Amino acid sequence: MTDPIADMLTRMRNALRVGKSEVLVPYSRIKVNLAEILKQEGYINSYAENQATHELRIQLKYDQSGMPAMQQLKRISTPGRRVYSGTEKLPRVLNNLGIAIISTPQGLMTAVAAKKKKIGGEIICEIY
User: Fold this and answer.
1) Rg of the Cα atoms in the chain
2) pLDDT the model gives residue 96
3) Model-level pTM greater than 0.90?
4) 87 and 118 in contact (C-beta within 8 Å)?
5) Alpha-carbon distance 82 to 120, whole Å?
6) Domain covering 4-60 assigned CATH 3.30.110.10 in the classification
7) Which is deepest, 1, 14, 22, 90, by most CB within 10 Å?
8) Environment class of residue 54 by beta-carbon count within 10 Å: exposed (0-12), middle (13-18) or buried (19+)?
9) Count of CA atoms in the C-beta half-sphere (13 A) of 48
């Protein structure tokens, strides 16, 4: 697999489209960090790591009408085309209704948090 983050986003996108309540993805630390941000921002209910089977189980979130909390998961930076941004040019997703996840020297964080800390980095994905 050349892009494990894109694989995770695709598995989540496919599970949301068919209405599944959870999705299993191969375990890695960056995926756990990504799931933690999604949980903090209210896009997923929870996640559980199982290092014995090398899986990460993500509980997807839906509202009362059955609509998923995440409408769009978009990978920005890919292995073949890295996209970097300084503090002043960090993206705003849907006028701050969505989030952009940035990989910084201090770890993964949202674009809003990176702007507050005045650091830039690689734009991983946008979610709304």
Assistant:
1) 14
2) 86
3) yes
4) yes
5) 14
6) no
7) 90
8) exposed
9) 7
Interatomic CA distance for residues 109 and 62, integer angstroms? 23
| Distance in angstroms (rounded) separating the CA atoms of residues 26 and 54 | 6
CATH 3.30.1490.10 for domain 73-127: yes
In single-letter form, the type of residue at position 52 comes to: A
Tokens 């994905």 -> residue: 125
Q: Which two tokens stand for residue 69?
A: 């909390």
Beta strands in the chain (DSSP E): 22-26, 44-50, 55-60, 73-75, 84-85, 99-104, 107-110, 121-127
What confidence tier does 51 reach under pLDDT thresholds 50, 70, 90? confident
**45 contacts 68 by C-beta, under 8 angstroms:** no
Q: Kindly state the average pLDDT of the residues 46-59.
A: 94
